[in-house]
């Protein structure tokens, strides 16, 4: 029996929206829209946070271009690496490795590829890597929370069976439905657990920023520790197949790695940088905001006045030169007595 308070899965017709365009039908996946919405929110919030700290408005886009492209590549290849059986078998189509539209993108691969992209973007723009990472930390959790809605629409990545009233309804015809379970069995809504965990993490980082000096990469460190802790538990109760190393799911190992890296960053950066961050830019690459008291019209008026004064001075000098050169000519025209 399905509990009266259980969480229903959306109608499968909501998974893909077919948009007619110039005689073609373009499929738009709801999962992709959730990820795109998360990206937009993260970009806007990161931009505002970085601008308040002295960054040039819009500079986030210059970094995001690299981060998004390499993040997508990293997400796909990490998924392929951790699910080799889905792509490398006799008769497999090798191009399926690149078919991201068929699903299969891993957040940890996205973090790795995205970090490389941020590093490249910061080198180009002159931003400090740690400054950008700190501005991004809570926004990244927001993006991940919104992205998890896609798993709900896709009826995927749910947890173990449960009799809790908020269990998730999954149709028995779903290929991921565990064999041997009765129809109507409820499952842990891991997508919802992760959303709640990420929202709490956002509040934690913002609160700690007000109480402590979470600069020089410390906000990123808190993100890695917090997300790693939550993800390590959620991965352990999921029923979808995954590669195992020493009997532990690959993403659990990745979560442990995130926690360890976060702790190392927190300790090292706390010892190396005890003071406040002087600027979000590296020395010599600072961006200086234009003086709000100087108006473009004022600048033009001042330039016009300077030009007028220069012209008047030039006219006076020319007149004086003409007057001086005229005297000798008059003297030569006068006969010598």
From TrEMBL:
Keyword field contains Membrane: yes
One record GO biological process: lipoprotein biosynthetic process
Annotated GO CC locations: plasma membrane
The organism's place on the tree of life at top rank: Bacteria
Cell compartments where the protein resides: Cell membrane
Biased composition (Polar residues): 326-337
A Pfam family assignment: LGT
Pathway: Protein modification; lipoprotein biosynthesis (diacylglyceryl transfer)
Enzyme class, spelled out: transferase
Biased composition (Acidic residues): 292-312
Lipid bilayer topology: Multi-pass membrane protein
Ranges annotated as spanning the membrane: 21-46, 58-78, 98-122, 129-147, 191-208, 220-239, 251-268
Keywords linked to the UniProt accession: Cell membrane, Glycosyltransferase, Lipoprotein, Membrane, Transferase, Transmembrane, Transmembrane helix
Enzyme Commission identifier(s): 2.5.1.145
Chain residues that bind a 1,2-diacyl-sn-glycero-3-phospho-(1'-sn-glycerol): 148
Entry-linked NCBIfam families: lgt (TIGR00544)
Role this protein plays: Catalyzes the transfer of the diacylglyceryl group from phosphatidylglycerol to the sulfhydryl group of the N-terminal cysteine of a prolipoprotein, the first step in the formation of mature lipoproteins.
PANTHER family documented for this protein: PHOSPHATIDYLGLYCEROL--PROLIPOPROTEIN DIACYLGLYCERYL TRANSFERASE, PROLIPOPROTEIN DIACYLGLYCERYL TRANSFERASE
Family per similarity comment: Belongs to the Lgt family.
Protein name: Phosphatidylglycerol--prolipoprotein diacylglyceryl transferase
Organism expressing this protein natively: Agromyces atrinae
Lineage: Bacteria, Bacillati, Actinomycetota, Actinomycetes, Micrococcales
